[in-house]
């Protein structure tokens, strides 16, 4: 995989994501998907080329193929809140909602987790499982899960490896881990990606709507 | 009978203002007739209720969550010295007003000499608008970060905490007592402009109005904690018109989780800042970059839970 540095432009007025660079980065200047809206109101990626900030990000890194709709979700094995290793492959055979969130015990993430909890039965009815992933350690996840009585698994993405691998975009010019949810079908193929940092409950609405209509 | 009881820890309040004149509790809750919390009161057998001071009353007071939190409090004294203005307070308010008036006067005289009108007025308007934004950001910072040991800001932070707990106190403060801390800051900030800057109608228009609004924001704040019946009609009209922060808007700030409606000049920025999650974004940024959690994330928090008060004091 090639590595390179790109020029940074932090003068953008809107809070666009900082993306992991991809091979087509330089070829598509400042095009946003049709369905994009401001970050605060949610960004549903309904086409496969999420294009980055125009021309300009100094991001040192490798080019990775970003996960988009239609991609096969890359396998991962992470520790859950009890310290047990959990692989994504374990969930093959049924739809999975994988939601990446910034951190335990922050207001948005708490709202989101509780919203998933409150709608969990509906997800189960749709045959889906729910997994939350953040960079927090298993102990933090365990406390978070217990405090809010979350019925689903929380995984510890040590050093945010999986987050980077899946290309979850950051917010606030890279300062804030992004809040992005993936719906995988029973074959592990990504069917929906939804991003919204500051309206966390919408993740539940959108993914449930999708699952129920599928 | 219970509604007549005022829970006011004068000992604690005495500590805060005496030790630092910059303290200024800012907030006020809804008055008792709006407070839905129920208060149970148990009188200590060692005190005489008839005494004007020093009654020790154990109170079981519901917190925001409805859990009972016992507090020991003393019956308040109407002329609590910590709420009164001293001559030092008055001097600072006078100096603050003087620097603001000089700025405004320079703006007006220069405008007349230069035959311009719109630009200084516009600059003044922008000053008024930005004063509201500034008040919100400053207020958010002081409310959420640091504590009494923080250098320079420590006493203010403690005062803000105290204000959340005893919000009605601000309406009992005399004018100079309430404003002197801001007046002092304004004096130091505006005086250099007055002395050094050339006559510039636009600059002085902006500085004069902005600093004036900031200095008087404590008064606007106190008015926002008062009841309609106790306010002059002109003030009520200004609040209703959105020119001064309204009582209802500020009351929203005093409800858990205490993380909205931070602006206290006109409140014009509140809706935008809250809807755009501006402060939430800043809080997340501070959390991820500096590892600090804002106080509002730990709500409901007994530190900020208001103590109820009688409407009849």
Automatic annotation (TrEMBL), chain A:
Keyword set, alphabetical order: Antioxidant, Chloroplast, Disulfide bond, Oxidoreductase, Peroxidase, Plastid, Redox-active center, Thylakoid, Transit peptide
EC number: 1.11.1.24
Membership in a protein family: Belongs to the peroxiredoxin family. BCP/PrxQ subfamily.
Cellular component, GO annotation: chloroplast thylakoid lumen; chloroplast thylakoid membrane
SUPFAM superfamilies per the UniProt record, alphabetical: Thioredoxin-like (SSF52833)
Subcellular location: Plastid, Chloroplast thylakoid lumen
Catalysed reaction equations from the record: a hydroperoxide + [thioredoxin]-dithiol = an alcohol + [thioredoxin]-disulfide + H2O
Lineage: Eukaryota, Viridiplantae, Streptophyta, Embryophyta, Tracheophyta
Name this protein carries in UniProt: Peroxiredoxin Q, chloroplastic
GO biological process: cell redox homeostasis; cellular response to oxidative stress
Organism superkingdom: Eukaryota
Organism, scientific name: Fraxinus pennsylvanica
The Thioredoxin domain, residue ranges: 67-214
Gene Ontology molecular function: any one: thioredoxin peroxidase activity
Automatic annotation (TrEMBL), chain B:
Entry superkingdom: Eukaryota
Keyword set, alphabetical order: Membrane, Transmembrane, Transmembrane helix
Naturally occurring in which organism (per UniProt): Fraxinus pennsylvanica
Pfam families in the record: Lipid_desat
InterPro entries, per database record: Chloroplast_FAD_CarF, Lipid_desat
Protein family: Belongs to the fatty acid desaturase CarF family.
Membrane topology: Multi-pass membrane protein
Subcellular location: Membrane
Domain Lipid desaturase: 128-297
One CC-aspect GO term: membrane
Protein name listed in UniProt: Lipid desaturase domain-containing protein
Chief location of this protein within or outside the cell: membrane
């Amino acid at each position: 995989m090639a590595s390179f540095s790109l020029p940074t432009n932090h003068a953008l007025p809107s809070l666009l994501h900082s993306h992991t660079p991809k091979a087509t980065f330089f070829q598509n200047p400042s095009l946003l998907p049709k369905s994009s809206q401001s970050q605060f109101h949610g960004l549903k990626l309904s086409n496969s080329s999420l294009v980055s900030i125009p021309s300009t990000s100094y991001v040192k890194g490798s080019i990775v193929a970003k996960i988009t709709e239609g991609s096969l979700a890359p396998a991962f094995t992470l520790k859950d809140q009890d310290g047990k290793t959990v692989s994504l492959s374990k969930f093959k055979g049924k739809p999975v909602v994988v939601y990446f969130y910034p951190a335990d015990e922050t207001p948005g993430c708490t709202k989101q987790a509780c919203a998933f909890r409150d709608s969990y039965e509906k997800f189960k009815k749709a045959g889906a499982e729910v997994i939350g992933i953040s960079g927090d350690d298993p102990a933090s996840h365990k406390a978070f899960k217990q405090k809010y009585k979350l019925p689903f698994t929380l995984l510890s993405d040590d050093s945010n490896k999986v987050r980077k691998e899946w290309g979850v975009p950051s917010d606030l010019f890279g300062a804030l881990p992004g809040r992005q949810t993936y719906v995988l079908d029973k074959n592990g193929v990504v069917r929906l990606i939804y991003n919204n940092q500051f309206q966390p409950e919408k993740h539940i609405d959108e993914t449930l709507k999708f699952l129920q209509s599928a | 009978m219970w509604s007549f009881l005022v829970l006011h820890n004068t000992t604690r309040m005495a500590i805060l203002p005496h030790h630092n004149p910059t303290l200024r509790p800012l907030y006020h809750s809804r008055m008792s007739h709006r407070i839905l919390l129920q208060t149970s009161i148990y009188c200590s057998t060692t005190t005489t209720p008839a005494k004007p001071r020093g009654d020790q009353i154990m109170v079981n007071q519901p917190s925001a969550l409805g859990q009972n939190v016992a507090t020991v409090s003393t019956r308040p004294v109407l002329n609590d010295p910590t709420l009164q203005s001293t001559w030092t307070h008055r001097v600072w308010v006078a100096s603050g007003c003087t620097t603001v008036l000089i700025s405004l006067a320079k703006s007006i005289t220069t405008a007349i000499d230069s035959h311009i009108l719109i630009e200084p007025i516009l600059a003044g308007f922008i000053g008024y608008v930005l004063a509201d934004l500034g008040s919100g950001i400053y207020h958010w910072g002081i409310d959420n970060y640091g504590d009494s040991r923080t250098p320079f800001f420590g006493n203010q932070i403690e005062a803000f905490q105290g204000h959340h707990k005893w919000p009605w106190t601000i309406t009992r403060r005399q004018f100079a007592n309430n404003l002197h801390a801001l007046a002092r800051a304004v004096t130091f900030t505006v005086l250099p402009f007055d002395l050094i800057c050339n006559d510039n109608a636009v600059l002085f228009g902006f500085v004069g109005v902005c600093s004036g609004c900031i200095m008087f924001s404590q008064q606007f704040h106190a008015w926002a904690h008062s009841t309609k019946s106790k306010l002059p009609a002109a003030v009520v009209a200004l609040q209703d018109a959105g020119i001064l922060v309204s009582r209802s808007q500020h009351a929203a700030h005093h409800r858990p989780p205490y993380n909205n409606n931070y602006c206290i000049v006109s409140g014009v920025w509140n809706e935008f800042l809250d809807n755009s999650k501006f402060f939430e974004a800043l809080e997340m940024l501070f959390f991820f970059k500096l590892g600090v959690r804002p106080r509002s994330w730990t709500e409901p928090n007994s530190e900020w839970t208001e103590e109820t008060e009688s409407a009849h004091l």
